Amino acid sequence: MAGPRELEVAIIGSGMGGLACALALAKKGFKKIDVYETASSLGFVGAGLQMAPNMARILDKWQCWEQIEAEATVVRESSIRQGSNNEELAHVHMPNIKNLYGHNHVAGHRFSLANGMYQACLKEPTIKFHFAHMIESVSAWSPKVTFTLKPRNGDAFTRKADVLLGADGIKSTTRTHLLSSLDLPSQPTIQDTDQAAYRIMLKREQVKDDPEILALLDGDCVTRWIGPQRHIIAYSVDNHDIYNLSTTQPDTHFAAAPNASYTTLADKGEMIRVFQDFCPLVHRMLDYVPEGEVCEWRLRVHAPLPTWTRGSCALVGDACHPTLPHLSQGAAMAIEDGAVIGEVLAKSDGTPESIAKCLKVFELLRRERTQMMVDLAKASGRALHLGEGKAKEERDRLFREAKEKGIGQQTVPDKWASPEVQKMIYSYDCVQESNDYFDKLSKEAAKVVQI
């Protein structure tokens, strides 16, 4: 039997989870890694995102963090403001994040992150990309995984691999076939959040005559405006040339058409009406958005899956633990998944039984952690969107207390900005945990693995 580095690994999807799996395995010496992606290329897509030290720590080990960080904005403070009048509720200073956790917390463009990882993959001769290829089905799970791929302009064909990693997102085809093969419902229980999001990117040229917005663009602060059932979070990306805004508001369009796409072209006037009771500064920012360039995203999560693995196949990233954006950890969790996949598969002896056990260890390592993060993101969203009442009064009291006394270790209702939550997230080392607990979890995995 060939050793683990000779295994043929197929990865479905080249998002953050897929790229992370490919890089992690290449860095561990795996020699045959194929990545299949539905899109024709990794184009300039997406919007801004925050990249915390727990993500940076992994990318630095893979030698691709330096350029990604160079294109980003170092976040040194956060301001939480009342949406209606721009009154500051709390201010979180973050000047010592690098000293505490070894890396900066930065804000950048999603493309910068994806491209940085992709360029690192291209330097690895063992990774091959196959764009415009969509997975259609999986027909066998062990000793080799057998699956069918459909090129965009060609006939479907069947492939076999020693390992199949489903990094194909929240609408994962790999997940559908994995669950149905175990006589489980083929689709997870969708937990509609009743929330949607607008994602907006204002270029410097658009706001050059607005000194108040320019000051935000030139700053190193993440600002959040909050109100009943809605909020906006904003920060600079692309070396302070773009001001990125992401909103959350009640879902009306997708709720009316539950089977539609997760994205839709939206109406600028409707977007402005959603935030009509917010302050003039917010109105001006929204008004700068060109007509016809307003897109809305549905925000959805699903109930925890009964399993992430079968045989030599495992799900990663949004395919198994989609989350809300309120904690800014979705991409980080997918990248952590990839890092752990590399660690556990490197400990396999190459047999199908060992591969299945190692992939189950991956699930055991990641399931509790990712669910905690998903739950924290939900809780943060609930706190930010409170309407009038005692709960909001208590939330605002905590904000005031943090602002007046200075933030040390006390709780801040915005979980992303809360020091004790930051410590729990930013100090986490998934690679160290994988090595510390592998032997213990291997015994547990051997009892529950499904071939």
UniProtKB/TrEMBL annotation:
Per UniProt, residues of the FAD-binding domain are 7-178
Keyword list, A-Z: FAD, Flavoprotein, Monooxygenase, Oxidoreductase
One Pfam family linked to the record = FAD_binding_3
Q: Which domain of life is it from?
A: Eukaryota
This protein is called what? FAD-binding domain-containing protein
Concerning SUPFAM superfamilies, the annotation shows: FAD-linked reductases, C-terminal domain, FAD/NAD(P)-binding domain
| Signal sequence annotation | none
Family listed: Belongs to the paxM FAD-dependent monooxygenase family.
What taxonomic classification does the UniProt entry list for its organism?
Eukaryota, Fungi, Dikarya, Ascomycota, Pezizomycotina
Q: Name one GO molecular function term.
A: monooxygenase activity
